[in-house]
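Field reference: sequence -> structure
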Amino acid sequence: MSTTMSTAMPAGVPAPAPVDGPHASAEMPRTYVVRTLGCQMNVHDSEHMAGMLEQAGYTRASAQDEAANAADVVVINTCAVRENAATRLYGNLGQLASVKAARPGMQIAVGGCLAQKDRGEIVAKAPWVDVVFGTHNLDALPVLLERARHNAEAQVEIAESLQVFPSTLPTRRESVYAGWVSISVGCNNTCTFCIVPHLRGKERDRRPGEILAEVQALVDAGAIEVTLLGQNVNSYGVEFGDRGAFAKLLRACGTIEGLERVRFTSPHPAAFTDDVIAAMAETPNVMPQLHMPLQSGSDRVLRAMRRSYRSERFLGILDRVRAALPDAAITTDVIVGFPGETEEDFAETLRVVEASRFSSAFMFQYSPRPGTPAATMEGQLPKEVVQERFERLVALQERISAEESAAQVGRTLEVLVAEGSGKKDGATHRLSGRAPDNRLVHLALPDGVAVAGDQPTSLADPRLADAADLDPRLPRPGDVVTVEVTRAAPHHLIADSALAGGTFAVRRTRSGDAWARRETARLGGGDDHHGHGAPAPAGPVVLGMPSLRRAR
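Structure field:
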């Protein structure tokens, strides 16, 4: 079932001129940009949105056009979990109102969790929006855009249940070396602070064969890292009657040749079982990293949150994980100021955080989300109380993060070089990447080796040289560099070992080759003269999964 409505454009807001779709001008295809607000699930949904638009004939706007708000279509993929979600959305829309008024034919679409929640309210508040669609009908985006252009009125279509499994949709992958793969959508938990089950529905699991086929397709396209996504990954398999399915899936990923790093997020402590710990420890390409939300260290608050575990169980899981993977980095989510939280409850959270030794934590001040049971609970705390507790928790975790990072100094790590750089990398002549445990590492290159910016601006960029001419000391995004950690900060590591003639070795990977092919094609060198194998398309790879296109 879906809710569909059309809203006439109000006076003063230019109606788009009807055309025959994005292919109306073969010389000038319509351009798009997708702005993502929210979690990893939203990021992956945005890849699906981009894939569908490209399949329909749209092209990604250039970085310059994106910065200048000059795209023909702007899609905003929203979040509804955090307090400032609506503020961020309407801030974006307010900025775009004057841009659209000056650019007849421009379209604005709003999707994601806030769109699912607020529906027609978005068009009422921002009548210059052309399309509103929900979390259950991502596949409708191109059709709704064309319908809005043809009818010159806003289109709002919100499906009440999943129409097409998102992972069967075309996907424009932003990275050639790493990719997200959804193993399930929705959630069966009933946490009193969370609106996700209402917006994304009950958990739906994909079959293992479909997941592994998508992982294999990513690896075939050049990826060496995959992150398995789900609202509660370790309850995967319950829908089709196999409670051990997630551990089996991890082990199956270990048999895929060329797949070097497997990650997953996020598990729920109540469903975390020892077979998953064993699979993590015994599968070489499953990384020593775990993100597991604590939310509160108080058993009384956990009960009020309907989190079906207690603090001692949570700490017991961490003990067993560290016994099996001594180098594991564990991260978490914590909510401060849940309704009714006392100073004694908060002291319990501090105790558990101290004992857990998280490498980092996402810490949030509780904010009521309309439609959740917690929003109407008694005992809503004053802002100043929540703020003071939040600051104490942040100070504690910053100390722990600094201590845990300091323990990494002197370790030798394999760093997967990322495409984006850190804020100071240009000034320090460092590159950035991720260690196996997902810690951020800024690494120095040897003297005499330099990279001019993240993205090559010409075919003369030394990273695009013929394989025989590549400087063996110069890594490309997707390559792996072995370095020694020389300094540490709470949220990153510094590896300057190359500057002192210490540990520094570059390992070329298929992902680095795929990045070089992509950039060579983007810059017009399409003859594959670099000896990296078959040509890759310009821009990130769009993966269509035609053999899997069916609703479940």
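Note: The chain has three domains: 31-157, 173-407, 411-524.
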